[in-house]
Write a structure and sequence with these properties.
Number of domains: 3
Strand content: over 45%
Radius of gyration: 27 Å
Number of strands: 20
Shape: elongated
Mean pLDDT: 90
Helix content: under 10%
Largest sheet: 6 strands, mixed
Distance between the termini: 70 Å
Oligomer: single chain
Low-confidence stretches: none
Order of helices and strands: EEEEEEEEEEEEEEEEEEEE
Structural class: mainly beta
């Protein structure tokens, strides 16, 4: 095995052959033949962090694997494992020791990651027919797109989307604006 390291004899970064490995590496410069010991690079430890996976009204406990120096942010899309199952999730909250919630943290400091599954979601739809509003729930793929102004049929009810309420707050009202299902808090439509 060969690595690049500083050679004190050559006074430059040169290619070295690894002769022996223990706590340190014994290496030989391929340019001048000088032998020296250099510390082995420490591989970052792998951590399994407790993860709460929320799936439309139910929650399960799983884990996400990180290297100890990795950083996790709210809104990150990650893969959580629960037994033999894996789920695409979005980070909703990061909990540190002492019930402290933060927007980002190094993996080694995280106690629990709170997430929601985004592969399969249930979109809440409110369809107004002039007299009353009809609530409808539509299971769909988290990446399915919905567009303001488009017509859809759900549970036998035909409607046109008037606006989309996003999970992070804003309303999308302009015709042609679109987003994916896992970002939607509620769809508002008019019966057609």
């Amino acid at each position: 095995m060969f690595i690049t390291a500083h050679c004190p004899e050559c006074g430059d970064e040169t290619e070295h052959e690894v002769v022996a490995e223990s706590r340190d590496q014994l290496v030989r410069c391929t340019t001048c033949g000088h032998h020296q010991r250099i510390p082995k690079e420490r591989e970052p430890q792998s951590l399994l962090i407790k993860t709460i996976i929320s799936r439309e009204g139910t929650s399960i406990v799983g884990a996400i694997e990180f290297a100890e120096d990795d950083e996790c942010n709210v809104e990150d899309h990650l893969v959580a494992e629960c037994g033999d199952d894996a789920f695409g999730v979005q980070v909703a909250s990061i909990e540190l020791a002492g019930d402290k919630r933060v927007q980002r943290a190094k993996a080694k400091n995280i106690l629990t990651i709170w997430t929601r599954a985004i592969e399969q979601v249930v979109v809440k739809i409110s369809i107004h027919d002039g007299r009353k509003t009809i609530p409808v729930y539509m299971p769909c793929d988290g990446e399915q797109e919905f567009t303001v102004g488009e017509k859809y049929v759900v549970s036998g009810k035909r409607f046109q989307i008037s606006h989309l309420k996003l999970r992070d707050g804003p309303l999308m009202r302009k015709e042609g604006w679109k987003t994916v299902a896992h970002r939607i808090k509620r769809i508002y439509g008019v019966r057609s």
